[in-house]
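ok so i was messing around last nite and threw this chain in just to see what happens. nothing serious, just curious
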Amino acid sequence: MLLTVPDLLNPDQVAKARQVLDGAEWVDGRATAGPQSAESKDNCQIPEGHPAGREVGTMILDVLGRNPLFLAAALPLKVFPPLFNRYSGGQSFGTHVDNAVRQVPGTPHRVRTDISATLFFAGLEEYDGGELVVQDTYGTHNVKLRPGSLVLYPSTSLHHVTPVTRGTRLCSFFWIQSMVRDDGQRSLLFDLDVGIQRLNRDLPGHPSIVPFTGVYHNLLRQWAEM
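result:
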């Protein structure tokens, strides 16, 4: 399931994040790539653990924990600390699949990458190219969102970033280990959750709400890994 979370960050939060990130140190993005990805990765990143990255990452995690659409779609168990990348001057990232497991630097903790996330910071008018292209069983999706908006997609997907031919593309990227590792099961639960919310909104107190909610939680109980 590929899902957009619009306006995860408000304009003030985007402006604050950009101010912090603009003053940070940037290094070759291949530092966080696997052996195969490094061959096709051409961008810049803020080093893992950098104070600027931690500051903006903490803000992102706080907002994620309060966003109902993200929580319903991802069913997060663990979220890898957000990282930050920058593309300009023709830089791109060739087709690849994200590593299955990520080690959180400086800790013994690992995150299984069930869901990949990209959060956009640069305005659409600020750069040309830089589309995130995701290939899944339903075809190819080109994603380029307004500042503060997030896209979620299965980490099993082949994906790439097209060359940035003008301006600078600035994003955060991170991974989520879901309580439900199977994308098909997560999609079913999300659709059921959305349907229950719509029913509750359109027909408050309808007798179907309780049994449908029971089905949702019993499926989650059956599929969740903690």
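not much to say yet. The radius of gyration is 18 Å.
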